[in-house]
């Protein structure tokens, strides 16, 4: 007698082309002052996501997939013209990974001593969002 069990044979997935995908609301925990304080969704959740994506350096944390985060720190020390072009590309590339974001554009750079404030517009499925990041 054999101790091996027999696997089922002949199973198939029918109508695999007719699978319907459902998008669920983007609810997440609200983080305020480094504390979890309830739940947020839609625009507020998206703003929080944008903040975390831009403030997480890509590839630095094993917990996140390679598509999460930005590579903005690498632009520090570049020539101003090159860095502006790279910052635009890297911010857009980082944020467009989120399926709620349709485009990122209208960049404005404000320089002050050894930092730059980058303002930009995020075009999302909800509305236009005016965001910024300091580098």
TrEMBL record:
Source organism, top-level taxon: Bacteria
SUPFAM superfamilies: gpW/gp25-like (SSF160719)
Pfam families named in the record: Sheath_initiator
InterPro entries, per database record: Sheath_initiator
Name of this protein: DUF2634 domain-containing protein
Organism lineage string: Bacteria, Bacillati, Bacillota, Clostridia, Eubacteriales
């Amino acid at each position: 007698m054999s101790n091996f069990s027999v696997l089922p044979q002949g199973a198939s997935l029918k109508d695999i082309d007719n699978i319907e995908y459902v998008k669920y609301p983007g609810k997440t925990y609200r983080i305020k002052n480094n504390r979890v304080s309830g739940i947020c969704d839609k625009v507020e959740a998206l703003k929080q996501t944008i903040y975390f994506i831009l403030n997480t350096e890509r590839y630095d944390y094993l917990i996140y997939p390679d598509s999460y985060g930005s590579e903005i720190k690498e632009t520090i020390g570049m020539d101003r013209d090159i860095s502006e072009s790279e910052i635009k590309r890297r911010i857009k590339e980082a944020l467009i990974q989120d399926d709620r974001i349709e485009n990122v554009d209208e960049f404005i750079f404000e320089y002050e001593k050894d930092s730059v404030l980058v303002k930009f517009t995020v075009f999302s499925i909800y509305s236009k969002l005016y965001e910024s990041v300091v580098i």
